[in-house]
Write a structure and sequence with these properties.
about 15% strand; alpha/beta; single chain; 10 strands; GSCFA; 10 helices; SGNH_hydro_sf; Rossmann fold; three-stranded antiparallel sheet; GSCFA family protein; hydrolase activity, acting on ester bonds
């Protein structure tokens, strides 16, 4: 007897392999799935501007990268002896205004490189609610400033669609071979309110469908639906009841691998994941002959795969363990 409805996720028409060059932008799912892919030795750039929740904020950053625009200096603010920008997450910060702008420019340049040379762009949309700063416009992050400075509103499908269609056309003109994977983040924005969060997610889902219908190079992965319909129980959330638990993240990752990776890549990922488990192994007696044999076998596997993937850091780690150094 099955305790939940398991729905099939269609295989991607544009599968990802280890030869792919990937840019992952957006909400928490972009970070989570990106980090899992990075650990599995994919060439991926993950949220160079930090976590970004709203489609129009993502469109603005992509526009800046494609057009090689400089960040708006009016968007800089100082807090706790650090400088931030309203168009980026607080992960992007500098000790001075100049350091912040240099870092922002560097991330924009990296983003353009992955857009122009890459094979896949993953966009994860988090919310339809947007904050606008008086005298400035939409912001990606309020940076703990007083809420009275901002106006919160629900953006329409037409507004979000116009913003994303415009930039996706420019991105595909820059790189016609680029494939785009859209997802709606399964993270619940309950601070907006439960009905308001559901309305927000519904708008994003319709937006993704509209974009998928307009662009042949766009496909959709149902991360939101997997958590809402297959894993519809609070035990699949962390203690905040907002973010998916590690178990839920791993479940969605398994679905992602089967739908997004081709069969050969799935086998490679399985092999790499096994090696990562062995790398994390901690013995009861690190001086035992059995552990030394374990390390020697692991080193042989790493050296065999190092020609295909960069395991140089891991090889150095195992060699240090074999020679008794940290």
């Amino acid at each position: 007897m099955s305790w939940f409805i398991d729905f099939p996720v269609p295989e991607s028409p544009f599968p990802i392999s280890h030869q792919s060059k990937i840019l992952s932008l957006g909400s928490c799912f972009a970070q989570t799935i990106g980090q899992k892919m990075e650990t599995s030795k994919f060439d991926i750039l993950i949220n160079p501007f930090g976590t970004i929740f709203h489609p129009l904020n993502l469109a603005d950053l992509l526009e800046m990268a494609v057009n090689e625009n400089s960040p708006n200096l009016q968007g800089i603010l100082e807090r706790d002896q650090s400088f931030f920008h309203y168009q980026a997450h607080s992960d992007l910060r500098g000790k001075t205004k100049e350091e912040l702008i240099d870092l922002f420019q560097f991330q924009l340049q990296k983003t353009k490189t992955y857009l122009s040379e890459g094979s896949h762009l993953i966009l994860t949309l988090g919310t339809s609610w947007i904050y606008e700063l008086d005298g400035y416009g939409p912001v990606a992050n309020c940076h703990k400033q007083p809420q009275k400075l901002f106006r919160k509103r629900l953006t329409t499908i037409e507004e979000m669609e116009k913003g994303l269609v415009g930039i996706l056309q420019k991105v595909l003109s820059l790189n016609p071979k680029l494939k785009i994977v859209l997802t709606v983040s399964p993270v619940r924005h309950i601070k907006d309110g439960i009905p308001e969060n559901q309305l927000s997610k519904s708008l994003l889902r319709v937006l993704c469908s509209n974009l998928e219908n307009q662009f042949e190079s766009v496909s959709y992965f149902p991360a939101y639906e997997i958590l809402m319909d297959e894993l519809r129980d609070y035990r699949f959330y962390k203690s905040d009841r907002i973010h998916p638990s590690e178990e839920a993240e791993n479940y969605i990752w398994e679905k992602w691998k089967k739908a997004i990776f081709d069969s050969e890549t799935q086998e490679k990922v399985k092999e790499i994941e096994k090696i990562n488990l062995e790398l994390a192994h901690r013995p009861m007696n690190p001086d035992s002959d059995s552990y030394r044999k374990f390390l020697e076998n692991l080193l042989a596997k790493l050296e065999r795969l190092n020609g295909e993937f960069d395991f140089s850091r891991e090889i150095q780690l195992i060699e240090n363990r074999l020679h008794g150094s940290n």
